[in-house]
Amino acid sequence: MLEHLHLNVEEAFSYYPSQAQIDAWAEQLLQESRTLIITGHFTGDNPIQHRFGNGPNALINKFIRFETGSGHIFYGYWQPALKQPAPLLINLPGYGGYMSMHPQINDDGYNILHISPLGYVTPQGNREDLLMADGNWPVLDRTARGVPGGYRDWLMDCLLAIRWAKQRPEVISERLSLFGTSQGGGGSLLLASLLQGEVCCVCADLPFLTAFPHSGLNGDAYGILRKAYSEVPAKQFWNRLGYIDTLSHAHRLHVPVMLSSGGADDVCPPKTMEALFNKLNTTKQYTYLEHNIHTHSRQSMYLFRTWLALYA
């Protein structure tokens, strides 16, 4: 159990960037992404073990090796829809190193691209050499410290991979939606803010990166920030986090947004999602699952599929 911090929530939010600064930051990031080179190549790797049935989806799903003009490499996982062309869904990972497969959603008639930004996950497994000494990925800590490898770079990888996917012949490029759990949910909201009218809808299940001060820097996710909090001046610390807080982007989210929280979630507490929901001025849904802990669940799968059926 982490020691309780006595945060001044009002003061922390006072250091956040203004709406105009968020708009400028988002536009700069998007425009920069359009100047960069991205290539993607399918690999021959197959992660599926045929121990229970024949895994029919595994016969067509493929890993993608992305490379930028600077030589930076990261990976994705491609699930093509059976009938083409089809809408495109982007699935983003939680903070742990993994890629998810959603055959139920894939069979609903969508192409799905799963992205693992910053090269954390490869077809051979996690890049454990990239972990911090405490066993966590460094992206959040680096964001708070203002050094390379933070969420700006994470989002850039996503923007480049999405551009690659939208250019594929089997994709209906104007039908793009985003979904994910935890970091995947928070990242989906941030990308919807960056891409604006290119996005049809967002599903953010238990979204991380939301209302940082309200978290108290408690739990296995927000608690990663405690070391940086003790070492970085408060103004810089909160200002940097403000740029990647979904709350700061609420004014830019004009597409249908699905949010969910778990009453037993001590990692991303419901009050953070409720703060975001109350600030959104768009078509929106918030589902509070009283007994759910912090994990992708069967309930969230049904919520995803229903929201996507309505708007994707």
Question: Short description, anyone?
Answer:
The protein is α/β, with parallel strands linked by helices.
Topology (SSEs and partners):
Blueprint: H1 9-14, H2 19-33, E1 38-42, E2 62-68, E3 73-79, E4 86-92, H3 103-106, E5 111-116, E6 121-122, E7 125-126, H4 139-145, H5 151-166, E8 171-181, H6 183-195, E9 199-205, H7 212-215, H8 219-222, H9 226-231, H10 234-243, E10 257-262, H11 270-279, E11 284-289, H12 298-311
Parallel strand pairs: 4-5, 4-8, 8-9, 9-10, 10-11
Antiparallel strand pairs: 1-2, 2-3, 3-5, 6-7
Q: Provide the helix percentage.
A: 25-40%
Mean pLDDT value:
94
SSE string? HHEEEEHEEEHHEHEHHHHEHEH
Task: Walk across the major sheet and give the strand order.
Answer: 1-2-3-5-4-8-9-10-11
- Overall outline: globular
CATH class: Alpha Beta
How many independent structural domains? 1
What is the CATH-assigned architecture? Answer: 3-Layer(aba) Sandwich
Cα-based radius of gyration, to the nearest Å: 19 Å
Note the beta-strand portion.
Answer: 15-25%
Number of helices: 12
Query: What is CATH's topology name?
Result: Rossmann fold
Largest sheet: 9 strands, mixed
CATH superfamily: Alpha/Beta hydrolase fold, catalytic domain
